[in-house]
Amino acid sequence: MTTAPETRLADANTALQRYALTIIGASIVVQLALVVTGSRIGWLAAGLTAVIAVGYAAFLIRDHGALGRVRYGLLAAHVITFASVVGGFLLHFFVLAVLGDPAVRADTAEDFVLDPGWFGVVLGMPTFWSLGLLVHALGAILGRGFEASR
Fold first, then answer.
1. Is 147 part of any domain?
2. Do residues 43 and 117 lie in contact, with contact meaning Cβ atoms separated by under 8 Å?
3. What's the rounded Cα separation, in Å, for the pair 111 and 136?
4. What Å distances lie between residue 40 and 17, 26, 128, CA to CA?
5. Distance between CA 139 and CA 26 in Å, rounded?
6. Domain count, the chain
């Protein structure tokens, strides 16, 4: 017979697996859209990334209770989102940089060494998001992994 904690764990694991596949797929779509637009960071990339953020928020609203009662469940969702979104942009940038693609170069000598759009997604977004992820991880650790009442 299945007990309540085992059912909660199974529900949370299933939700996280579905979410991980969805967020990875969405991140791939963002990177493919970038390829189609010449790898220029603009409104399309920003809009698609915002759609991912809204999807993440919806997932948290829908599954917050189950994930919060499973050790590190909410933190796992945060890490999956961070790694998928930031990792996708960093991998895309890495390939462009290795190939010497002009999409990542600054337009003028007065600009920083990177295109301003790529500067934001390669340096700004990971920097500030990782600070939030670090605070979340510390909070989860201090709460012994549980982020909702059991």
1. no
2. no
3. 34
4. 31, 18, 22
5. 28
6. 1
| Bridge partners for 114 per DSSP | 105
Task: Identify which of 144, 112, 107, 129 has the alpha carbon closest to the alpha carbon of residue 53.
Answer: 129
Q: Which amino acid, residue 39?
A: S
> Which residue reads 């709460």 in tokens?
143
Place of tokens 């529900």: 11
127-132 long-range CB contacts below 8 Å, 24 or more apart?
Answer: 129/82, 129/86, 130/82
pLDDT digits (tens, 9 = 90+) for 50-100: 999 999 999 999 988 888 878 888 999 999 999 999 999 999 999 998 888
Residue 76 lies in a domain: yes
Which residues span the domain enclosing 33?
4-142
- pTM tops 0.70, yes or no: yes
Quote the distance between the C-alpha of residue 150 and its chain's center.
Answer: 27
- Got the DSSP string for 25-56? HHHHHHHHHHHHTTT--SHHHHHHHHHHHHHH
Residues in the chain, how many? 150
Q: Is residue 148 part of a domain?
A: no
